[in-house]
Amino acid sequence: MRLRIKIDGRTYEAEVEILDSAESAPEYPPYPPAEPTFIPASLPNSVAHVVPEQSSDKECRSPVMGLVIKVNVEVGQPVQAEEVVIVLESMKMEMQIAAPASGVVKNIFVSQGRAVKVNELMLELA
Questions:
Q1: With 70 as the cut, is the pLDDT of residue 102 above it?
Q2: Are the C-beta atoms of 111 and 123 separated by less than 8 Å?
Q3: Quick one: CA dihedral 43, 46, 52, 53, positive or negative?
Q4: Is the model more confident about 8 or about 38?
Q5: Which of 52, 60, 112, 126 could form a disulfide with 106 if both were Cys (CB 3.0 to 4.6 A apart)?
Q6: Helix, coil or strand: residue 83
């Protein structure tokens, strides 16, 4: 194939051969993926005391720092295990907090719109 090219006002003629794109592509050796590594971070001493050794099965604690979106129960209301009792928002994600066991709501320590810290007691069952 012959082409005419104009560069800086001067005209050139060139002969061009079109190759198949698969033939002209350079071959690269396969790139092996890096091995995943995990280095657990240690908690600072000021945070380590917040997480208790064992949590009562009659308490609902906040697993994250966030904002209470909705409280689905009232004091005196019976609840079943795994029933959603509180909805939290953390990092623009909604998290449903379920009752750890069946029982009656004894105390509610949070309200809609309130910010909670990690491991803060939100609800207690009797």
A1: yes
A2: no
A3: positive
A4: 8
A5: 126
A6: coil
Query: Which two structure tokens, joined as six digits, stand for 98?
Result: 């379920």
* Domain ranges for the chain: 56-125
Cα–Cα distance between 126 and 104 in angstroms, integer? Answer: 5
- As a whole number of angstroms, the distance between CA 62 and CA 89 comes to 11
Fold observed for domain 56-125:
OB fold (Dihydrolipoamide Acetyltransferase, E2P) (2.40.50)
Between the alpha carbon of residue 86 and those of residues 50, 83, 112, 120, the distances in Å are 21, 9, 9, 13
pLDDT tens track for 11-63: 999 888 766 666 666 677 777 777 777 677 665 655 444 444 445 789 999 99
Going through the chain in order, the beta strands assigned E by DSSP cover 2-7, 10-15, 59-61, 66-71, 78-79, 84-90, 93-98, 103-108, 115-116, 121-125
